[in-house]
Amino acid sequence: MKLYTKQGDHGDTSVVGGKRNKGDARIEAFGTFEEVNALIGKAQLIAAEEKSGSDLQKDLERIQHELFDCGSDTADIRPEAVKKVTASTVEWLEHRIDQYTKEAPALKKFILPGGTALAAELHLARTVCRRAERELVRAGETEDVPAPVLMYMNRLSDYLFSAARIANSRAGTADVEYERSAEVFTTEQERKNKK
User: Fold this and answer.
1) Which of 142, 171, 178, 188 could form a disulfide with 110 if both were Cys (CB 3.0 to 4.6 A apart)?
2) CB within 8 Å of 111: residues ≥ 6 apart
3) Taking Cα atoms as reference points, which of 17, 142, 114 lies closest to residue 75?
4) Does 1 reside within a domain?
């Protein structure tokens, strides 16, 4: 089997259920999922080098598979298609975010992306994830996009933020607060006390 097909030489690509121009918003979105996936792959290698925890490494590998699922679901434009990303996929991310939030130091202000090499890579993946989410929203302005995939990408950026904070915390590296930030992160109890 040859790796190249020459079918995209004129700017078109195949999706399940049809063909699209490579500049189509849907194609842009799942192409950006691939960018996020590559960055997460690099982060996983750094996590192994920095000994940041097998839990984080396992999470990142699982997310790589789920990003392929997101791409597959987004590329399948058939109305009857059975999707791979579900509410439970999103709930798993929420569970991991909650666990890492409890483990990390309290957060009051915005922080600068960086710290350890792993944290910096996870922050980079987070920003590309946000771009993928925006592209998926743009695609959704003119056609149906899978709602669970949109929720997943939104939650994934939060996961990557919390994972970056954990990477710094476990390495004994403090997050650097944005020096002109107000205190924007408060607990439920703190919000009640302000009323």
Assistant:
1) 178
2) 165, 175, 176, 177, 178
3) 17
4) no
pLDDT tens figures, 153-194: 999 999 999 999 999 999 999 999 999 998 988 766 565 666
SS3 label, residue 174: coil
Tokens of 151: 């929720």
| Residue 4, in any domain of the structure | no
Q: Are 149 and 104 in contact (CB under 8 A)?
A: no
The first and second tokens of residue 109, run together, are 């202000």
> Would you tell me how many other CB atoms lie within 10 Å of the CB of residue 21?
11
Show Cβ contacts of residue 191 under 8 Å, excluding neighbours closer than 6 positions: none
Total domains, the chain: 1
For residue range 35-73, list pLDDT tens digits in order. 999 999 999 999 999 888 899 999 999 999 999 999 999
The answer to whether the beta carbons of residues 155 and 70 sit under 8 Å apart is no
Name the DSSP class of 76. Answer: B
Where in the sequence is the domain holding 59, given as residue range(s)? 13-194
Give the tokens for residue 136: 């998926």
What type of residue is 86? Answer: T
